[in-house]
Amino acid sequence: MEHIRLQNVSFSYDKEKILDNINLTLEAKKFNTLLGPSGCGKTTILRLVAGFLTPQEGKILLGDKDITNLPPEKRNISTVFQNYALFQNMSVKQNVAYGLKIRKMSKDLIDQKCKEYLSLVRMEAYADKGIDELSGGQQQRVAIARALATEPSMLLMDEPMSNLDAALRIEMREEIREIQKKIGITTLFITHDQQEALAVSDSIAVMSKGKVLQKGTPQEIYFNPVNSKVAHAVGAVNDLTDKQNKTLADLFGREIISLRPESLVLSKTQKKESDIKG
Fold this sequence. Notes:
This protein has 278 residues and is an alpha/beta fold. It folds into 2 domains: 4-231, P-loop containing nucleotide triphosphate hydrolases (Rossmann fold), CATH 3.40.50; 236-278, no CATH class. It contains 9 helices and 12 strands. It has a 6-stranded mixed sheet with strand order 6-7-8-3-9-10, with helices on both faces. The chain has a 4-stranded antiparallel sheet with strand order 2-1-4-5, with helices on one face. The mean pLDDT is 91.
């Protein structure tokens, strides 16, 4: 598997710039996450990588190969959509088999792969069930099995947990991460949930208004954000300005100091000159 690179990519809808000169590498065999609020451009990046959209400027590279204008069916990339997009008139097994039939595989091979990937997502016992008989979490598992059954080089997931309740979201994000680790597939995961991003990712790109503000490991993003906006994107944070505490501002050479709650210690006495009275 090779990495995918967006090189100087810009994209606009009706003259409104959605992506502004994006340079981003999606690392091979890793769990790559785009994190940001609605409208920041993260789903547009997913659609560009999938081939559903074409950038007005820049290139999309698979390794050294330019795939900017390659149609979706020739990219060997699978997508799990926000609403799962399962066929309601088909059984679980028929949904998983759909892409395999299009590729004109033999019946025996289709049966083998359906069994293998339904087993991977723990849904083999539901093979003959209708989609409307499944819970939200079960439908998500079927959508993942269908996406993986064609053995793509990359898996794209567009806010796949947004329709699940809080407890099920935690369970499913752990399962998705385990599946990704097990098969080692390059994954692009879209979310606006900071806890979700920090829990599952190898690499996080924090986005705002069509730009990538910072890319790094969850630890780098959390403990060494490049600015206050990134700090606020990945957890609780307290901002102190130079007007509130001149000593701290002089000490760090910053107008704004961002502090994580867990980094603060309460004391009855001022032990250092930089300690804040309050």
